[in-house]
Amino acid sequence: MAWRFRLASYIIGRLLQAIPTLLLSSIGVFLVLRLVPGDPADALAGQDATPERVAEIRGQLGLDEPIPVQYLNWVSDLAHGDMGTSLRNGLPVSRLLKLSMPPTLELAVVAYAIALAIGIPLGVMAGAKPRSGWDWALSGYTIGTIGIPSFLSGILLLWLFAVILGWFPTSGRVAFSDDPVSSLKHLALPSFALGTGLAAVLARYTRTAVAQVMGHDYIRTAKAKGLTQRVVIMRHALRNSLIPIITIAALQAGGVMAGAVVIEQVFTRPGMGRLVVEAIQNRDYMVVQSALVVLVTIFVLVNLAADIAYGFLDPRVRRR
Amino acid sequence: MTAPTYERVPATTWRKRMRQQSMLFASFDRVIRNPQGVIAIAGLLLLVALAIGAGLVTKYGATSQSYPGAARFLAPSLDHPFGTDELRRDLFSRTVFGLRSSLIISVSAVSIGATAGISAGFIAGYAGGWTERIVMRVVDSLLAFPGLLAALAILTILGPGTRNVGIAIAFFNIPAFCRLSRAQMLSEKNKDYVSASQALGAGPLRIIFGHIARNALPPLLTQVSLAMNGAVLISASLSFLGLGDKPPTPSLGGLLNSSKSNLRDAWWYAVCPGAVLAFLLLCLNFLADAVNEATSPYSQRKV
């Protein structure tokens, strides 16, 4: 009973800690957009607008108020679900995001799953037996992928599997609920391009974490009492190296989101990538600001989930 | 492989002396004794030479569409090592000039970002108190999101363009350098030599940049090569997204973007510029690994 109580209080503590983190990252987004010299009103008014016109636009956007007031206004609107309207087409930003998020999220989730499915087993096998065939395979895999950004591997996959072999469609996206097979076919190449690159990073960290644990005395004990290599790795080594692995996996969530934004352009998928790139070309900072907050929030939540997972995995963590 | 045996190398008197006197030289010396480091430095020298001599090694202009024998989608040949594109331009010229602009953006952005970040980190670490707390809170909130997203945010306000891509990359390099240099400062500032120069009446700026920086900088070199890697990657991604150079100016990312719609007619369009970009990134990664091994006091040679 006592450990359950400790676990619950650990989780509640972590959830409370996420609030300042989220506020901090919203300040981060806000600061980046405000600290940089340049005035959205100038850009919006066009090149030969009169100073009066620029001032009027500043007034409409609330840009003439002090920065802390602007921030508070923005956050309180956000808390009420109001993300403002696009400066270009006047549509509510929340609606634009609702339309563009599902394609990006499904891409990110599948790519992430591919990264985990390749990266963790490869890293564990390589770390459990340094200088074995698996270790060399990992080195080869890392060297082969490290120089290739995901959009480049995306183009090469597109060329080979869609243009030459014709196995997969070259562009677009189909909702899973409309046509599952076609949806997966559209998803396969982009998520593979994104996932294989991330897998290399994940595998390297997993290898280090497992190799470190394998040097401990209790591993020798486990081997000495006659456990098979498989049981030693699964029950003793992996469990104790999971915390660094989960940490790096959660940090990679940011890379997945950013990568998805770029990969979408390779495969001409509608999604947040297109939304953000178009918004940047139009200097539509209302859209970019909210899109970034959404991406950063997802990132913070994934890391929060990792923090909570520590509590389940490691009794020492929840005692603190 | 055994640990490098410095003593056996002939004619090392000046080398030994340099190693003892300058941590920077000692690090460099260890980098060029590492196979990865040699590959990285040789590869980077080659690429930099190509970029600097871009006008000399190319036969055709990067944007020239009319020259004797011009045709669309010529396959790679001696005349056009990388083939030609949909507008009859020579892809080798375009790639080399794209490489040049990519290197210029990355080197200048990392230099600016590193200088600003390291100065802020040193000053925050040395000063302590509220200065440190405020600087570090700002840095933490900027570190919360991945570099590419930060760059996108900055481009929203500045608008697309090469110069602005450079500014965006410089800006998002500041937090990482700031954090690392502050940590370096914290581990150096209580050492005896610092107290000695304080006792001799040296001012804080002189102590920070004249004395501490000499010892605190080499470990930051790893971050410099990592940052170069990130800068090349992000500038290529941004120009791929169409937020960098405006056509017809060539850029590595821009070439890959336009190759995408011509994959059916010209495989070399994507493969050749892509190979150059991948080779550049591979060399920078190797360099980061080699520098890390050379400057980290705990690292041993990986077997």
Keywords for this entry:
heterodimer; A: 320 residues; mainly alpha; MetI-like fold; 13 helices; globular; B: 303 residues; disordered C terminus
What would you say this structure looks like, in words?
The complex is a heterodimer of chains A (320) and B (303). Chain A is mainly alpha-helical and 320 residues long. Chain A has a single domain, classed as MetI-like fold (Orthogonal Bundle), CATH 1.10.3720.10. Helix content of chain A is 79%, strand content 0%. Chain A starts with a helix and ends with a helix. The mean pLDDT of chain A is 83. Chain B has helices at residues 13-21, 23-31, 35-52, 54-57, 91-127, 129-143, 147-158, 162-188, 192-199, 204-216, 221-240, 252-260, 267-295. Helix content of chain B is 69%, strand content 0%. Chain B contains 13 helices and no strands. The longest helix of chain B is centred in the middle third of the chain and has 37 residues, at 91-127.
